[in-house]
Structure prediction request, 304 residues.
Amino acid sequence: MKKAIIIGSIIVISAIIYFLIPSSDDDTESSINDIEVIKKTQNNYNISILLDLSDRIDTNKYPNPTMQYYKRDLGYINSIADAFKKHLSSKKIITINDRIQMFFDPAPANPNINSMLKKLKIELNRKNITKEKLYSIRQQYKSIPPQIYKLTLNDNHYIGSDTWGFFKNKVSNYCIKENYRNILIILTDGYIYYKNNNFKEENKSTYITPIGIKNFGLNNSNWKEKMSERKCGFIKANSNLNNLEILVLGLNPSKKSNNPYELEVLKTYWGNWFDEMGIEKYEIKQTDLPSNLDEFIQNFILDK
Prediction:
């Protein structure tokens, strides 16, 4: 009897081992290669920053005594650069293959601003990385963006933000690279408007403004029901963006609209839009002091 039990146990254990062990060396090698590709993709960073240089940064039109909104942007950019530098410092030189860049849409007419952008497009690999270059990244992202904002404020010519157009025509080519962890960080107040890309399809549009939110009646406690019934939102601009992570910073509901639900409406507009375009990981944050958002920004980028 005992002998039969032992034999039976051996058969069961053998069967379990048979099904757990890969059927061939090729399968084992394939599994290992798949894991290595995933690790490599996640460890190569392709960070893009999209700035909204509309009148939201105008210190006369939208003053903030605690900290002007453009200065908050600069603080967020510093946090992004710090996280990128920490990421690079954690890698062996031979594995470095990372990128960081900045965009506007539409591009400013000022040629000086456009030349500054070129200096903020940085590609690093094992052939060009040096200690000096590593430490200069933080300095470039600390010194150049303030100059860009200063020129924009001095020009005092705000032409809006074509964020919808950026997603439609540029995001796939500019912000998504194969075998990279692609991260797009958008600095905006949450509103989108650009006169040269301004159209509607029923109750969906390429823009969102405080007036539009009010006209749809999204300013009371049943705003969710109204938004769902009327199918309000952004027109889908792209698809299959599952290889792109997005962090939106700076949402700032209009005080003039006197709408206690405005922030939630803005977040829902953006969130629904991202969902429709296949973006699986995103965060949308209200404007706050850079010191309060620093840890959150760095954790998002460093995937903590």
Remarks:
- The chain has two domains: 1-43, 45-301.
- Residues 24 and 223 are 58 Å apart (CA to CA).
- The radius of gyration is 24 Å.
